[in-house]
Design goal:
Radius of gyration of chain A: 23 Å
Helix content of chain B: 55-70%
Number of helices of chain A: 5
Shape of chain B: elongated
Helix content of chain A: over 70%
Structural class of chain B: mainly alpha
Order of helices and strands of chain A: HHHHH
Strand content of chain A: under 5%
Strand content of chain B: under 5%
Number of strands of chain A: 0
Order of helices and strands of chain B: HHHHHHHHH
Largest interface: A-B, 46 and 57 residues
Largest sheet of chain B: none
Distance between the termini of chain A: 63 Å
Number of helices of chain B: 9
Oligomer: heterodimer
Chain lengths: 77, 222
C-alpha cells in the first residue's frame, strides 16, 4: 500500500470499519511510515477541533416564539 | 431522555420539558439550517417552523427513529423548501448533489509520481503534536475550521456537521439524511480532508523561499 492509497482509507480506519485484510495492510504500512502516522494524527486533531466547536444558540426572541407556538398548540388540541 | 419520555412530555403539554428539548436540539438544527438559508435570522425562522411542523405531526411519529433524527428530517425539508424561495443568496455549487469521483483527500502533488518512491510522501506532513493546545483550541483556529465547513458542498457539510460537530453515530446520520452508509463515509472523508487542508494551511503554512520574504509565511489573522 502506498501513502497515496492509505490517505483515502483514513476515515474508514478511524471509524474502525476497514475490512480485516485492508486493516492489516494499513497497520503494516503505518509501522514504517512517519508521514502517514503524522497524517493520521492531523486527521484526529481535525476531528478533535471540530468536536470542540461551541454550538450556536437560538436568540431569546426565537425561543420565546417557539414556546408561544407550543402553548398555542397545546391549547388547540 | 429516551424518545418515549420526550414524546410523553410533549404530548402532555409540559412546557418546561418542551423548552428543554428546544435547547437540547438548537445547535444541530441551527447548524443544518444555515447550510441552506442566507442568514442567521432566516435560519432561526426555519428552526421555529420545524418545531411547529413537529408538534403538528407528533401523532404520526411512532418513535421508531430517535426524536432528533425525525427533527432533522423535518428541518431539512423546511430549509430546502425555504432555500428554493430564497435562491438569490444560496450558493448553487453548495447544493450540487454529488462530487467528482476522483476528488483526492490530499493534493496528489504531495506524493512522488514515479520512481521507486511512487505514491509516497515527497515531504512528511507536519507533526501537530508540537502545536500548543491553546493554539489548537483558540477562537482563531475555530474560525479557520468553521469557514472551511461553510465552504463545503451541502451534502458534505450535512454529514460533517452531524458526525463531527454534533458527534452523531454513522448509523444515525445515514438515517437522518436518507443516504447509504457508503455514501455517508465518502462524504465525511471528503469533508474532513478539506477541513484538514484548511488547518494545514493555517497551522503549517508551506515554507516560503527565503527570497520571497518571510512575511508571506505568516497566516493572516482575520
Amino acid at each position: 500500500m502506498t501513502c497515496a492509497e492509505l490517505v483515502e482509507r483514513v476515515t474508514d480506519y478511524l471509524d474502525g470499519v476497514l475490512p480485516t485484510a485492508e486493516l492489516e495492510r494499513v497497520r503494516r504500512h503505518l509501522l514504517t511510515c512517519d508521514g502517514c502516522q503524522a497524517h493520521i494524527q492531523q486527521m484526529r486533531t481535525t476531528v478533535r477541533i471540530l468536536e470542540a466547536a461551541p454550538g450556536p444558540r437560538l436568540s431569546r426572541e426565537t425561543e420565546a416564539r417557539i414556546l408561544a407556538d407550543f402553548r398555542q398548540w397545546a391549547q388547540d388540541r | 431522555m429516551t424518545a418515549s419520555l420526550e414524546l410523553e412530555a410533549l404530548r402532555t403539554g409540559d412546557q418546561d420539558a418542551f423548552r428543554e428539548l428546544v435547547e437540547q436540539h438548537q445547535s444541530v438544527l441551527l447548524r443544518l439550517a444555515v447550510t441552506y438559508v442566507p442568514n442567521r435570522a432566516v435560519a432561526e425562522e426555519v428552526v421555529q417552523e420545524t418545531w411547529l411542523a413537529a408538534l403538528r405531526g407528533l401523532h404520526g411519529f411512532e418513535g421508531r427513529a430517535s426524536l432528533r433524527t425525525w427533527l432533522v428530517r423535518i428541518l431539512l425539508n423546511v430549509a430546502r423548501r425555504r432555500a428554493g424561495t430564497e435562491a438569490r443568496t444560496v450558493p448553487f455549487s453548495g447544493l450540487a448533489p454529488s462530487q467528482s469521483v476522483e476528488e483526492s483527500a490530499v493534493d496528489p502533488a504531495r506524493f512522488f509520481r514515479q520512481g521507486p518512491n511512487a505514491g509516497h510522501w515527497t515531504s512528511i506532513p507536519d507533526d501537530w503534536a508540537h502545536v500548543p493546545e491553546t493554539r489548537l483550541l483558540s477562537a482563531e483556529t475555530q474560525q479557520v475550521v468553521s469557514r472551511s465547513v461553510d465552504r463545503l458542498p451541502a451534502s458534505q457539510r450535512e454529514v460533517i456537521t452531524l458526525r463531527d460537530l454534533e458527534g452523531w453515530s454513522a448509523a444515525e446520520v445515514t438515517q437522518a439524511l436518507s443516504i447509504t452508509d457508503g455514501n455517508q463515509r465518502v462524504l465525511l472523508h471528503r469533508a474532513r480532508a478539506k477541513v484538514r487542508k484548511a488547518l494545514e494551511d493555517y497551522l503549517s503554512p508551506p515554507t516560503t523561499d527565503p527570497l520571497d520574504g518571510a512575511a508571506d509565511a505568516t497566516p493572516s489573522a482575520n
